[in-house]
Amino acid sequence: MTTTKVLLDESEMPTRWYNLLADLPSPPPPVLHPGTLQPVGPADLAPLFPMALIEQEVTTERYIPIPDDVMDVYRLWRPSPLYRAHRLERALGTPARIYYKYEGVSPAGSHKPNTAVPQAYYNAAAGIRRLTTETGAGQWGTALAFAGGQFGLDVEIWQVRASYDQKPYRKIMIETFGGTIHPSPSTLTAAGRAVLEQDPASPGSLGIAISEAVEVAAQSPDTNYALGSVLNHVLLHQTIIGEEALLQLAKVGDAPDVIVGCTGGGSNFAGLAFPFLREKLAGRMSPTIRAVEPAACPSLTRGVYAYDFGDTAGMTPLMKMHTLGHDFIPDPIHAGGLRYHGMSPLISHVYELGLIEAVAKSQRECFEAGVRFARTEGIIPAPEPTHALAACIEEALRCKETGEEKVILTALCGHGHLDLAAYGAYLSGELQDHALSDEAMSSAVASLPRIPA
Amino acid sequence: MTTTKVLLDESEMPTRWYNLLADLPSPPPPVLHPGTLQPVGPADLAPLFPMALIEQEVTTERYIPIPDDVMDVYRLWRPSPLYRAHRLERALGTPARIYYKYEGVSPAGSHKPNTAVPQAYYNAAAGIRRLTTETGAGQWGTALAFAGGQFGLDVEIWQVRASYDQKPYRKIMIETFGGTIHPSPSTLTAAGRAVLEQDPASPGSLGIAISEAVEVAAQSPDTNYALGSVLNHVLLHQTIIGEEALLQLAKVGDAPDVIVGCTGGGSNFAGLAFPFLREKLAGRMSPTIRAVEPAACPSLTRGVYAYDFGDTAGMTPLMKMHTLGHDFIPDPIHAGGLRYHGMSPLISHVYELGLIEAVAKSQRECFEAGVRFARTEGIIPAPEPTHALAACIEEALRCKETGEEKVILTALCGHGHLDLAAYGAYLSGELQDHALSDEAMSSAVASLPRIPA
Fold first, then answer.
1. Is there a contact between B391 and B268 (Cβ–Cβ < 8 Å)?
2. Domain Tryptophan synthase beta chain-like PALP, which positions (chains A, B) (predicted)?
3. Residue B420 and residue A9: Cβ atoms within 8 Å?
4. Residues on chain A touching B142 (C-beta within 8 angstroms)
């Protein structure tokens, strides 16, 4: 029996993040101001973000050093383990070698603290006292509540009311870490009050919650806003996942033939894949890199590549990305972290360049993979990474047919301890698949803003 | 900044369990047959346990090799990390060095799989096809469901109905791992039916659930029963915790001055403490070893040392132990794993020999410690280990006053992801302390069976 867990010592932890912008054959299209339709500049973003993060958003430096104070917090759970899935391989009878990088060991139970911690750090360093954000299922809110506490920041979170009511454990976890949480729409903001006037029983939406968090941040000079995915600097911070995985695979003398990761806004996928994409662009490796998205929210496989807003209300800058339309409301699948209408502009660009591929999976196949994984590997995955596991198992079974001993690498981006209700629904046969009809697709993209060429 | 996590490579994992019986100055009093009042022999236990475990229950061999197939499953999460609590120390302003051994990385999220896996292994090796057990809050049931699955055993679990109804996530977790779960009392057993006839709405008790699980196991030759604490072989399997911690502390050149662990049945405490007690008995170390129990169920600090039954119904052999009386029903504190009327006979004996000390803590102080720990170290502890953390913090603050740079070691035996409701109650100020009145104590011990001297 060879190694099960490939560990790195803290002294081996990468000390810099990797910026894919340095190595792309062409830059992604600029982000546009929604009023002027001109590229946004640092001044446009300064009311919401500290200058250090704005610089990370646009820099083409290949490597960004990780500050010592961030390294110090990372050490609470990083380097994260890379597992060889011996028991899953045996259960599948595949000659493939399956590795998974496990981010569920973090305080929030997912990859989100990898960026929450530096975001809190840079804001505190800029003299900010409070961060606001939105959260859907609650992973991002939990991560930011914890991270803010490490640097003396108050963290105020607007959670979509439907999730706030359905998932009380996330609220308690956020409060245990010291965060303040409001159901959204709330009476604390003009945006929230406007919605409640129309519909006092509004279940809320991520778009409304973003509007509330942004409104509060924009009004107070000591308050900034933080985002958990989509933007370049968020993807940058997540690259520590892939940088560690590179070192860990080197330790066991393996290189990946196939890399699969689930994609919502894209930060988990980018975090694992971008350092390997650097190796691929440099000709040192040649993995197939595959994004896996939910069939109910297939921005890469069925969306259009166009300028669109990041939020439902249309308040953000315009980003060129794969999108289902900013007022698209995905069916209520359990992988809440994958229910985003758009895909990170940087990942969209990389997809357009043909550097990665994408597939979509229905949720029953994903939960089947999740249960299979739990029973063999002993970790109950969050609903989001079950998408990657389903694609992983598909590839491993293909290898079983062909006899290929491929090396498959995936990101197990979080545990499912707070998502067990979804497993309950699956095990009792109540879980529905939600595929997207062509009609729903066409009507969704009809909302795209018109940009002159 | 020195190391945060002290890791062991899989190749450094201890390959044998440590048996404290080999080193005690006197043996513990024998376990008695409840009918004959004579010491029980292997034949008395054979209907419930495989011979390998019965031998481990009574052997005085110092070390028991861990079978390869058990090592193989252990590698899914072992060696577990030892953390230096830098951030907690800093928040307390203590010169003490605090280390915690974290068992929440296991499939069940606690130390329980350390014994569930070998118990499943030895039963499967003896040709057993099914295991039955009881579970309260659900930690043990989860561990055995997972472990059974690794060796092809069906696992059937009777869960106290009150917990079954209140904690649906545990039921789902058990089913995700492939276990079968029944609310107890159930109509599946004579014991359950008898209770339901008296009280169709019975909320159940651990005692009733044990009776049901034992009844089913005793009736089928292919079915055995498994217990998650109290017995010698269970404590034996847990000693891998302390053996690893010894190696890890040696790596950083530290030796503990104080060891604290929470105690319910005693397996977590023994698992950490016994290997250090070996060192203490041999004169190689001199740590103070302190058990921490809930003020609502203080078997060591306020119970009597007497022969008593292990279950409420009085069906088990008689064990000499610190007990509150077998029909004592502890107040419904959130640390469900510490609500046991007795203390492991081996730990009780060690306590009588003066080798360990004990303190009791009220639950609000414990949750205060739990929240403090979460906000500094990033891990939300289960309610059980918050008792150890409260004692840890008390000791660290004592060091702050005296200026002593003591090394404090504790076992963080599980995470609190499925116990967040308890944190919610604490944070909203609804949590009550449940101290035990002298009257309740006296009436509880009045139920003790009378044993002729």
1. no
2. 76-414
3. no
4. none
